[in-house]
């Protein structure tokens, strides 16, 4: 059911998409219901929703959870805080993800307790590491918080939460200064001040950057600090399977996470007082994405299965300018695992977009031309490609001085040059690619969710900052601000919480399918890889840059059928509900996220920001409502939508 609830500091309403039994995030578009007396300026976007839905912030029930678990004290990062069982580990804080949000949060909470950073691959393998452009912040006397807010709201098609936008734009400069104090080295101009770039959608120069490798530099500085912190343990190659949850009266409570050590094929259970999800996005629901291989929507799917509220999943940002390998003089021998990003800053520095006949086209679509927000540029390129039956367009920066190009974009220049393209003399072939999820796990102003003990930060979260479209370089900023804001409530929760050491026995253990044998596992992997490509093809064909109701409904049917076929194949080969494997669990999460996107897109009967549908091509003020998917009202019948373990019932 879709309904509207008044609330939020921006006088927004909430579009509620109830998750039904058909599949993860399915929606029945029936009627609307307005709750009276809820339009208040003093209610934040998540706080208002929490109160309306009666997600009250109760303390843990002391009658059901023992007080016997004591802090484990300081330890070296190389020493895990397990007891006798090496497959069970106890920490004050568990952080899922090692991008900027997870690392920044970990460094702060480590001052108050033990921290486990759980990362799917190597610690540096995150969306942060691939962020080229920079971090936006008001650091120039000619700029202002109000201007940054306005740019953010315009880019977000006025679906942003104004209070969230103000908080992020106001606190951003301090977060940048903290990074610099920690050793992050950003580019400076000849005057000795930080060099501030301008990107699409920004009215001022406010992008702090380290050439075109900003994310990598921030990640370097943070990882260096983490390694030197004796209270932080990093667990590489640990894939998060499911959150460990229990019901405490009306509240869902998070107690940690089950993981799969993908190197040893051992299930490791982390019991924690507080869990932060900072696991990034879900770019790999599409065939072409700038995201690294780890971005399979794990955190969003984990949270959804744990009954967390999900919001705005229809707003998938396609970066307009990913490197089009087909247009390179020398084609890559091996297909890329993820598309190579050509940063927004290239257009911000004067790059011009042309079709293959060298006709500049952006002024035909928007008066801001190449400096229009990403959704506008991506749709414009998509329109050119479809009208002209071409596979890419050209981005030309060669009219700028060679020295300036090489100093500002050394990574892009080097990448292109190895394929025979000199960007100081030749245009860059580009094409849109899935880049960023503006939706995610619904969070309040302190990163809190409706699940007790569970906080979110970074791309996995939906804080209300981005609205219907993210402004360039606001993602790292949001991650930094919310990672920091989640610290104090996390500490308070940790101090007021205690767990029984027997908590590890409350849930059934996931099982690694050694018993199936290598031949069966080879078949399972082969089928899963085929299904993954089929799902990505469906999403690109029907849920891409331009959508329609018919396409979305077709996607809904085909995804459900594909998932049913895949699960049937697995279970016929002896796979069981509690079995886990990296690629199978990733597939499970991709299905869950894809269905959340489709369900949310079907619920929005207008075109706003990143969601453009030919059936409802205009903005509708009455529909300026965040899409919200509530926890499932009944148990779901697909593997992707259920937690593997049985929930505890006290």
From TrEMBL:
Cofactors, names only: FAD
Cell compartment(s), UniProt: Plastid, Chloroplast
Pathway: Cofactor biosynthesis; NAD(+) biosynthesis; iminoaspartate from L-aspartate (oxidase route): step 1/1
Domain FAD-dependent oxidoreductase 2 FAD-binding, first and last residues per copy: 92-476
Entry EC number(s): 1.4.3.16
GO cellular component, as recorded: chloroplast
Class of enzymatic activity (EC top level): oxidoreductase
Catalytic activity: L-aspartate + O2 = iminosuccinate + H2O2
This protein's record includes keyword Flavoprotein: yes
Main location: plastid
InterPro entries: FAD-dep_OxRdtase_2_FAD-bd (IPR003953), FAD/NAD-bd_sf (IPR036188), Fum_R/Succ_DH_flav-like_C_sf (IPR037099), Fum_Rdtase/Succ_DH_flav-like_C (IPR015939), NadB (IPR005288), Succ_DH/fumarate_Rdtase_cat_sf (IPR027477)
NCBIfam families: nadB
PANTHER family tied to this protein: L-ASPARTATE OXIDASE, L-ASPARTATE OXIDASE, CHLOROPLASTIC
Function text: Catalyzes the oxidation of L-aspartate to iminoaspartate.
Protein name in UniProt: L-aspartate oxidase
Lineage: Eukaryota, Viridiplantae, Streptophyta, Embryophyta, Tracheophyta
């Amino acid at each position: 059911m879709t309904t509207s609830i008044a609330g939020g500091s921006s006088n927004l309403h909430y579009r509620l998409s109830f998750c039904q039994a058909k599949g993860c995030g399915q929606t029945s578009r029936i009627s609307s219901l307005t709750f009276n007396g809820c339009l208040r300026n003093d209610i934040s976007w998540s706080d208002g929703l929490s109160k309306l839905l009666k997600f009250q912030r109760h303390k843990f029930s002391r009658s059901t959870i023992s007080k016997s678990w004591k802090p484990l004290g300081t330890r070296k990062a190389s020493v895990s805080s397990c007891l006798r069982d090496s497959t069970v580990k106890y920490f004050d804080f568990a952080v899922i993800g090692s991008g900027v949000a997870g690392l920044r949060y970990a460094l702060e909470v480590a001052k108050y307790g033990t921290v486990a950073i759980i990362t799917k691959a190597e610690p540096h393998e995150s969306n942060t590491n691939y962020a080229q452009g920079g971090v936006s912040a008001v650091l120039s006397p000619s700029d202002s918080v109000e201007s940054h807010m306005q740019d953010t709201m315009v880019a977000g098609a006025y679906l942003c939460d104004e209070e969230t936008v103000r908080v992020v734009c106001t606190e951003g400069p301090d977060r940048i200064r903290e990074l610099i104090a920690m050793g992050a080295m950003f580019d400076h101009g000849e005057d000795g001040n930080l060099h501030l770039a301008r990107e699409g959608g920004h009215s001022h120069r406010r992008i702090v950057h380290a050439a075109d490798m900003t994310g990598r530099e921030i990640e370097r500085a943070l990882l260096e600090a983490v390694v030197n912190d004796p209270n932080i343990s990093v667990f590489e190659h640990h894939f998060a399977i499911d959150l460990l949850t229990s019901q405490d009266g009306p509240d869902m409570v998070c107690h940690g996470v089950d993981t799969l050590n993908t190197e040893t094929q051992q299930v490791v259970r982390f019991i924690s007082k507080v869990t932060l999800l900072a696991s990034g996005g879900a770019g790999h629901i599409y065939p072409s994405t700038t995201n690294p291989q780890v971005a399979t929507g794990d955190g969003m799917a984990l949270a959804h299965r744990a009954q967390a509220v999900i919001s705005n999943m229809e707003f998938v940002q396609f970066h307009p300018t990913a490197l089009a390998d087909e247009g390179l003089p020398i084609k890559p021998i091996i297909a890329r695992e993820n598309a190579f990003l050509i940063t927004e800053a290239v257009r911000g520095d004067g790059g011009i977009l042309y079709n293959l006949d060298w006709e500049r086209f952006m002024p035909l679509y928007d008066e801001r031309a190449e400096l229009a927000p990403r959704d506008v540029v991506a749709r414009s390129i998509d329109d050119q490609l479809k009208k002209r039956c071409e596979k890419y367009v050209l981005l030309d920066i060669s009219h700028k001085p060679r020295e300036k190009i090489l100093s500002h974009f050394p990574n892009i220049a080097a990448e292109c040059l190895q394929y025979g393209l000199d960007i100081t003399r030749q245009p860059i072939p580009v094409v849109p690619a899935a880049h960023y999820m503006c939706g995610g796990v619904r969070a309040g102003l302190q990163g809190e969710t409706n699940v007790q003990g569970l906080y979110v930060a970074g791309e996995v979260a939906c804080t209300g900052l981005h609205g219907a479209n993210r402004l360039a370089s606001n993602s790292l900023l949001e991650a930094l601000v919310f990672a920091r804001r989640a610290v104090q409530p996390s500490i308070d929760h940790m101090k007021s919480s205690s767990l029984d050491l027997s908590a590890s026995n409350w849930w059934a253990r996931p099982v690694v399918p050694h018993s199936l044998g290598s031949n069966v596992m080879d078949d399972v992997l082969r089928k899963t890889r085929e299904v993954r490509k089929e799902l990505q093809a469906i999403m690109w064909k029907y849920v891409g840059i331009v959508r329609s109701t018919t396409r979305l409904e077709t996607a809904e049917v085909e995804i459900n059928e594909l998932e049913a076929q895949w699960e049937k194949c697995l279970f016929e080969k002896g796979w069981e509900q509690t079995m886990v494997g990296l690629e199978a669990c990733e597939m499970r999460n991709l299905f869950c996220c894809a269905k959340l996107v489709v369900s949310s897109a079907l619920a929005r009967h207008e075109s706003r920001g990143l969601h453009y549908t030919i059936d409802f091509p205009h903005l509708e003020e009455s529909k300026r409502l965040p899409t919200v998917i509530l926890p499932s009202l009944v148990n779901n019948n697909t593997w992707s939508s259920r937690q593997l373990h049985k929930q505890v019932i006290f």
